[in-house]
Amino acid sequence: AQSVTQPDIHITVSEGASLELRCNYSYGATPYLFWYVQSPGQGLQLLLKYFSGDTLVQGIKGFEAEFKRSQSSFNLRKPSVHWSDAAEYFCAVGAPYGGSQGNLIFGKGTKLSVKP
Amino acid sequence: DSGVTQTPKHLITATGQRVTLRCSPRSGDLSVYWYQQSLDQGLQFLIQYYNGEERAKGNILERFSAQQFPDLHSELNLSSLELGDSALYFCASSVGDRGDGYTFGSGTRLTVV
User: Fold this and answer.
1) For residue range A49-103, what is the model confidence (pLDDT) as tens digits?
2) Are the CB atoms for B17 and B7 separated by under 8 Å?
3) What SS3 class is residue A85?
4) Distance, CA of A113 to chain centre
5) Would you state the pLDDT for residue A18?
6) B34 CB neighbour count, 10 Å cutoff
7) Which chain A residue has its CA at the smallest distance from B4's CA?
8) A with B: how many residue pairs have Cβ under 8 Å apart?
9) Run of H or E including A37
10) CA-to-CA distance for B33 and A80, rounded, in angstroms?
11) If you compute the radius of gyration of chain A from its CA atoms, what whole number of angstroms results?
């Protein structure tokens, strides 16, 4: 079955420290891959996406993610975390090009807290 | 402002009642998606419409229905409400039908009492 696993429910990092949020997926083919961020009381905002090509993807707010086919992973990274990055982060997968449906499968999310 | 408008923002209603949630997609987007977010289930896909037609169906209960109108806005109807239907309901939109990057609305928080 198609699924997305975010193994870390809650992560706390110090401001200025580096960050890596993990995401593993189970899918028949290489899916479209996404990271979204949700601040309290807000909708989800797209940080970055991967469809094909270069496996290192740059996104907004200084985030990047690396697709590793052999590990079925799409981990999100940021070299230096800011207090404003505190939020919940969701990894998602979608049907690759050629699919006729646009629904995404989301992980359960990782809540990021930032220590001053 | 993401460009996707959801109304109302908050809704409190009693069990057994029926409510309608409304979504106006971003200008130019033809697809509308509905998701339910709850603490125990996370984000669950409910249904997708593309240019007025149903395109995909997920874990949507029979008590729930949706439609997309000619002006592309969409409504999600929830009936015979139960306590367990309390959740955040998100609408998202995209230009095409492949889900290659949604824009989400800020959601409707439904509380069933």
Assistant:
1) 998 889 999 999 999 999 999 999 999 999 999 999 999 999 999 876 545 567 8
2) no
3) helix
4) 16
5) 97
6) 24
7) A43
8) 72
9) strand A32-38
10) 34
11) 14
Query: How many Å lie between the alpha carbon of B107 and the closest alpha carbon of chain A?
Result: 6
Cβ separation of A109 and B106 shorter than 8 Å? no
Could you tell me which residues are beta bridge partners of residue B33? B48, B92
In A, minimum Cα distance to B95 occurs at A102
User: Under 8 Å CB-to-CB from A44, ≥6 apart: which residues?
Assistant: A36, A37, A38, A90, B90, B92, B102, B104
B98 near A102, Cβ under 8 Å?
yes
Residue pair B90/A90 in contact (Cβ under 8 Å)? The answer is: no
Identity of the residue in B43, B98, B107 whose CB atom sits nearest the CB atom of A90: B43
Query: Given a cut of 70, is residue B53 above it in pLDDT?
Result: yes
CB pair distance less than 8 Å for A102 and B103: no
pLDDT at residue B5, rounded to an integer: 97
Average pLDDT, chain B: 94
The backbone torsions φ and ψ at residue A15, rounded to the nearest 5 degrees and listed phi first, read -60, 135
